[in-house]
Amino acid sequence: MNDHDAPPTVGLSTGPATSLAYHTGTWRTERPVYVELAPPCSLGCPSGEDIRGWLGSTQEGEAGFETAWRRLVAANPFPAVMGRICYHPCQEACNRAEVDEEVGINAVERFLGDTALEKGWALPAPAASSGRRVLVVGSGPAGLSAAYHLRQLGHEVTVREAAAEPGGMMRYGIPAYRLPREVLAAEIRRIEATGVAIECSTPVLSLDEAQARFDAVVLTMGAGVAHHVDIPAGAASHIVDAIDVLRDVASGHAPLVGRRVAVYGGGNTAMDAARTARRLGASDAVVVYRRTREQMPAHPTELDDAVGEGVRVQWLSTIAAVEGPHVTIEKMSLDEEGRPHGTGEFEELDADTVMLAVGQDADLSLLAEVPDVTVASGVIAVDPVTLMTGREGVFAAGDVSPGSRTATYAIGRGARAARAVDAWLAARVLPAEPVSREASADRLNTWYYSDAPKQHRAELAAARRVTGFEEVLTGLDAEHAVFEARRCMSCGSCFECDNCFGMCPDDAIRKLGPGMRYEVDYDYCKGCGICAAECPCGAIDMIPEVR
Amino acid sequence: MSVVHIPFLQTGTLAVGGRLLSEDERSLQSQADRPSSLTKGHRACQGCAEALAARWVMDTAVEASGGRLIVANATGCLEVFSTLYPESAWKPPWIHSLFANAAAVATGIASALHAQGRDDVRVLAQGGDGGTVDIGLAAVSGMFERNDDVLYVCYDNQGYMNTGVQRSSATPAAARTATTPAVGRSPGQAFGQGKSMVKIAMAHEIPYVASATPADLRDLEAKVRTAMAMHGARYLHVLVPCPVGWGSESSQSIALARAAVQSGIFPVIEARAGELTEVQRIRERADVEEYLRPQARFAHLFKPGGDDALARWRALAEANIRRYDLLGERS
Fold first, then answer.
1. Partners of residue B16 in chain A, C-beta under 8 Å
2. Single pTM value for the model
3. B268 sits in which H/E element
């Protein structure tokens, strides 16, 4: 072996010196730098979950599950619930779709959620008490998320709920075949165990009184009031609100709907109502919708599941009149701007029950005598950064305030409201959400991600589904959950694949050990860019060298 | 083949390493304490795949021999960039030779060790395509024919790069070099010229012949280990993209090697005693254009009048795919 520590010598009879004396880094015109970018899944997650992070822990198998779950509940205290009901915009954004199919993030979330319930993992202990008291009005996803995060921050939190059970739309709006009640109850109990007091059958009747007893108030009453349209109807007609049917079923009072049911509307509630009607014994459930499939607000998976269970959809149709079991349908046509107009062409539909699912309004009864909390477009107006209403110390989140009416969005806004209340109580300025650089698909070198198929959740046969309210989707087992998690490409974040270290022609990358990643030895790096080109996940930038 | 097949762990067998791998599943190049036989400070051009492949090969041979390895090096890029007097970038015992005689020098070392009764020290000879396919072919052929106990490694960058990119008998058809300008009726290197050193080596029916690229580390490490576990004459041919000679971006050296394999232009094979025993199948088929277009030496193929040469390149890829069953259609 050469003695590389010996000083350079000149002379034919002596051994050579080492090339280490020659710093090739001076040739460089561009330098590689490791970067940490935001993955599209997290950017697409309204709950603000660090999806890449908790998938990363799941990849380690059994030993990583609890860490994964803890990283998950840092944002969302309802993984078992959301692993079932979320419409998973993260998956629509997933870069893996460019390779084969998107990662089944939602299924892994559910696996972690169910595992945590099975093992009885507790949520983190709250921070030391701040001595401040916060009232949350309503116990839906926004309210409970706000309560959980406020409690984590050390505040004393009371949640008041008008209904007999907590959960809001998760309890009364989402059918049990999509969300078993014991799963919801368990995740709510776990939040209570952190010290959140939930008082049911206790409507808040006065905001002034509430403010007199609490340091801050978060309004999360939701949008549980059925929106109405005027339809000429005879006395014998059986017209009900879809949301009431769902609530009755959820309360254990299944109504009689007859054999033929027409559902008027095109949103997720319409889908749930039609599927519920089938489970209540309707042999024929028809969704009547004014526009086309492309314009339907229901998520495509909800529609597919409904159709898979035998629900029919009558497109470009409105209900013009109801007379007993006879429903008069007017055919519609779309104008150039996609707005539906009546054609004057009518047809008859037989229905024992007509369910209206044409939208839900925010429950604003509490605000009747509160002029400084302004309402715009049917929801409470809030500051877009702090979520504070027109009244100092009163915040609003979820369906009662502006934005997307989904549980995942409500959870994200609830958490945001908690941070806002915390900042307000401490007289701090809450910074706006940071804007992160996205790890887009064009940064990836997908060659390195071996082809691996998505693990599809086994679906019960559609025929079996309609017979009852047992859960439709089953979960992944541990092996499949780990496999699915390992399909994550870790977009924009080094996962230590060793490509840069192994493929540097100049031996100019240092490997720092497990979890420590790498560093570039700029004394020798010539700036060829192979590390950046061969980095699977796009975690290396080449930037111009400035000397 | 003795490649370790990795279970799906985020990345599969194609990445260098991975945090989820167990110790025995890790490639040598993923180890923080790898030998790094060709150390930092060498003067290879930016993005030189030869420097990369030489470290991979040498590290694996050093490990396989327990550090008891002597290397004879033919003159060429590999020598010029690694041993500028008075410095050396090589850590193992390493001897300079002439352009033509690395194989003969290695034979001599092996014979001397044999005469001394030492069977614990292994011998490796290496050179570029000029020193192997052109100038040193007689010595290489002699070493093969005598079945001397040497692993000979050729790093094929398809020309005389350090002297100014002149053609060699390994320069591919239509490639522009300083001596085959892209002018006239048949621009660049003439079709039909050149030698296939892999086939020449196989024709000697030596114990082991293999080809590899820097686009597949695990395959290359496995082949060096296989070769080091055998005795007699062994030959490894590694395609090494050359940003300067090929006129490509320095960052694209691995990508070009990958495209050469995935288009069928460079078959990755193993042969024992003259018989083809292993062929690496194409994983994601690429058009030859993916290989050719990023290289300025083929720029004339993508100008008016280049269609004919491009079609002939496609035919070359097709012929390889047929000959080596690269798509696995026959098995």
1. 497-499, 501-503
2. 0.89
3. none
